Amino acid sequence: MTWDASLQRLVVHSAPSETSIAQFSSPLHAQWNTFPNQAPSLRYLATLVHDKARRTNMLFGGRTGLTQNFNDLFVMDSTSPTPIWQLMPPLANQPTERLYTDMAFEANTGRMVLGPGQGPFGPQNDTWTFDGSTWTNLGASATVTPRSQPAICYAPGIGTMLFGGGVNPTTYHNDTWRFSGTQWLNTVVYGAPPPRMGHDMVWASNWNCMVMFGGYNGSTLGDTWSLTTSFPGVQWNQMLVPNTIPPRQSHAMAFDQRRNRLVVFGGADANGQFLGDTWEMTPATFGWQWIQRTPTQSPPRRWQHKMDYDPARGVVVMTGGYGNPQCGQYCASHLNDVWEYDGDTWIQRVPSTSLPAVREGAGFAYDSQRQRFVMQGGSGSTPFPGETWYYTAGNDRFGQGMQGGSSLRLRCTQFPVAGQPTSFAFDSPYGLGWLTVFVGSAPQAGLTLGAGLLCGTGTFYGVPGIVVDAMGFPGSVSFQLPASMIGQGLVVQGIALDTGMCLRLTDPLAVTIHAP
Q1: For residue 306, what are the β-bridge partners?
Q2: 375 near 363, Cβ under 8 Å?
Q3: Cα distances (Å, whole numbers) of residue 329 to 300, 326, 332
Q4: What is the value of pTM for the model shown?
């Protein structure tokens, strides 16, 4: 049972073929109506919740009998006179199945690059690209040799690079490849690190270098390396970091741009035990230093999980892997939980939609152009699930801009930090729009506007506030935040000329200004 806030009624999924609605005529009187429909199969212990932003009701999971569990998601259109349940369709046109792979987003092309990995019949060497809607198989033209557990990373000015990987327990690579857009080119580099697999590699934007740590080549490694441009090509340099992090493999890393530090979580140590520790590499007086963090809450220990950084919200996002917090050092199970790290603690996020099947070794990267994470492949309780998943988590939204929901997305594209610039962008069909900015906490109520200039009825939250031009596709605004605004809030809302030659409001967005 859930409360449908959009239409002020109770919704009960009470049988495999019916849904009941309670309309309240007064605080103590209600009229029940039952609608036959295509509904979830008979189950118990399912979750039913109302999504106010999308004006829908969602039912997830449940079980029947002693062993049959469900992980399907049904969505009910709350605005329909007769509610209809619809099973969300699966994605299609996927790359060939693989795990122990890696993926990177190319900011210069707007594409994901998915590299080789372990397939059902052995290591692969095919490469796929994803433009946000379509996967393209580059096949044999991507001539990197077959391998699993390589590391792939995109670096502005260098390109998408691949390092290392393994074929079997006794063959490890230390070759460096550059992706040309259609194929991998074996690249001559200086000072190549020792061969390895199970390492991770990220672009440290504030340090202008690519950083690689750890891995396995018969021994578990704990060395740190950087890749930089040099004449006439690229060069590896070992980074001598005091208080070095314990050696590990199959860990995950991300670079926190907001806090100017590299974050490492988990992996497996030299004894094969799963780890659940959090480390950060930060600039020091002479070079860098590793610092172990002790968050008040941490994810379960694991390996072969994935992490990347969300620059709009200023958090590191982690998902999946193989581990288990409820048994001994070595027993484990596959995971599909989602955690976010803000520099102080880890917070588990529970998406309101269906979760991917549990898995390890998937490809996972942040698409900065479309403001979403993309995950592909991996393997778990379902061997080699070949689907593609998106993960998004908005800033603190409240209320609705337009009655019935807004078709224009508003997003924070640069995390708000006192003394630094922040940026916002929203869909603008004709490139003509404005952003309202209200300084303070989220208002308790907005100003309701009727049809006329607006494309219907909407609620405006920008009073009192200022209005600034937001031209372009999308409409975008960037402005400097005073250093004195630490802890204060901003409420923003976009206004755009829509295709009906009327104005449409985005949903409002509230953000908190953080310390540098």
Answers
A1: 319
A2: yes
A3: 12, 10, 8
A4: 0.68
